[in-house]
Amino acid sequence: MSTPAPQGEDRIELLLATPDFPPSAAFAAQAEVADAAIYERAAVDPDTWWADQARQRLDWDTPFTEVLDDSDAPFYRWFADGTLNVSYNCLDRHVEAGLGDRVAFHWHGEEGEQRDLTYAELLADVQRLANGLKARGVGKGDVVGIYLPMIPEVVVAMLACARIGAPHNVVFGGFSPTAVRERLEVSAAKALITADGGRRKGKTVPVKQAVDEAVDDLASLQTIVVVRSADAPCPMRAGRDVWYHDLLAGADPHCPAEPMEAEHPLFLLYSSGSTAKPKGIVHTTGGYLTGVATTTATVFDLDPERDVFWCTADVGWITGHSYVVYGPMANGCTSVIYEGAPDYPDKDIWWDIVERYRVSIFYTAPTAIRACMKWGAQYPAKHDLSSLRLLGTVGEPINPKAWLWYHTVIGAERCPIVDTWWQTETGSIMISPLPGLTATKPGSATRPLPGVSAALFDEAGGPIEQGSGVLVLTRPWPSMLRTLYKDPDRFVQTYFSQFGPGVYFVGDGARRDEDGYFWITGRIDDVINVSGHRLSTAEIESALVAHPVVAEAAVIAASDELTGQSIVAYVTLRAGTAAEPALKEALRQHVAERIGKLARPKRIIWADDVPKTRSGKIMRRLLRDIAEGRDPGDATTLRDASVLTKLQQATAQVDQVPAGAPETGNA
Ligand code: WT7
Description:
The protein is α/β, with parallel strands linked by helices. Helix content is 32%, strand content 22%. The chain has 21 helices and 31 strands. The strands form 8 sheets. The protein has an 8-stranded mixed beta sheet with strand order 12-11-8-6-7-14-15-24, sandwiched between helices. A 7-stranded mixed beta sheet has the order 5-4-17-16-18-19-20, sandwiched between helices. Strands 22-21-23-25-26 form a 5-stranded antiparallel beta sheet. Helix 3 crosses helix 4, helix 5 (86-99) runs antiparallel to helix 6 (119-135) and helix 14 crosses helix 16. The radius of gyration is 25 Å and the shape is globular. The relative contact order is 0.11. The structure holds 5'-O-[(S)-butoxy(hydroxy)phosphoryl]adenosine (WT7). Residues 271, 318-319, 394-397, 419-424, 445, 507-508, 520, 522-523, 529, 532, 534, 666 line the site of 5'-O-[(S)-butoxy(hydroxy)phosphoryl]adenosine.
């Protein structure tokens, strides 16, 4: 009698000992990239390799003759004398090729509504909205803010901007109206596209109304286009505000795509850095689209005739820009957009959607996988997941247990997993397996993609072949950020001042193993990664000290089982303020209003003082040790060492805020 094969947890324990997971022969045989010589070819002549991608995957109005212009490094330019239009490449050319009836998006609403949007339908709406924006004085180079839930109109809005060369500035729906205002103000946005309201787990929240208060006095903002989406109360100001459906109904249906210079800015996207001021990351037209079109095809082994692609990220993040909108649409494939939360109406909704639309490629974040793992395998077990053929993760390092759960429970040990490392700044995936070629190891993003050069440096800038160091990218790549909006000095300072010319400083630490695989260990700066969302300690500290009762705040990231990292705030109150528990909730609420709910500290610890060096710098390492219950060890450089003991006591006592369902917006 044979013993039954181990299942569930036991199976995962067993697989933990497996050194690597090569693609199956069947997968490799059909893969888009099946020839390992591609790495070598790209390494020998990266410019030619990228130029080939740009020519093969995109339609150019004016073909480029020059590939990389590094004469003004680090302000690199790619394909600079070429012209093209992103919305033409994502829509018109597919329709012209006879694919107008292909579904671009299966949209699934929170209450189970279903809407299929074909390429032809999207093209029609995009042209009308583009004309509507033009009629309102929005033209090439004018910034348009977009603050929308995950509804089809968000795609139309982005592509309409691209069509007329108006760089969009999408603000994640989870950010507060105050954060929206800040981003619109610094980018001098001329128009904003938003919605009356948003839906979240059966509730409706007014969006436009809340935004109104925040943007009321913004001089640059001349138009607010409002999508009627949730039947929320929605005041409209005559002259400035217009309903989306009215704008479309009154617009000329024909709007030819204007050729844009390859280096024309496609969008700005604000991302947190190590100061309180978010960075306006600028991506341009030709290089960005080359990067996302190439990686969507190669990393996800995408066949637009066959696959249904689902990236669960919110469009408000770079993952949504690159792998919900531009990468899939440039490839002309069918994707899924889901409006709601992963646990509404129940915890099987994602797997219901996979089954319903026969999703074949599924891309999400480790934090979401860990949440599903916690909820249990009974939810995916309710559904037929046999359509899946490839799985992906992004946003933070994935722990091997979660990887193996994904591999066994979701992928049925059949689907390769691509752990994709990249950043808002890189625009597209940089380090990742190629699923038909790479033997994966749980927890490693494996190797730089063809055309990408990554290395590890020690602090003095010496290269490290094996072992730990800081991650750098040693060659420019087409989809790289071009600058920080209106702040070129900060661009050079943040990314290109650490090690010699031409070396891009990532901000992550990593290790390389004996096979040359990269294992990203996380940020080495004051950036926090909560559920794949990037937040800045300085930004949260600045929000906290803006509250009248707060004298000082020190914010750190502690490791967290579910969200990867969680926010811990040590707060010193002003003299005379009683340290009452209710005040903690008030401070959390205050941070939610200034930045957004996702930035609320999970723990607030009252501190009479925080550890500082003699020169007055907060010693975050000591705070992290204390928050994670470690012995802080050597503290001889401290101004006042007794601070530590007090803090350890306060930390041990602190009442933990109960963890809600994770925010999984980034994927
Ligand atoms: C930071 C970038 C672009 C993806 C969404 C986040 C971390 C991202 C991985 C991965 C380990 C990862 C890094 C990076 N990160 N992907 N596969 N493995 N870490 O974009 O907000 O710009 O954050 O996310 O720390 O620097 P982002």
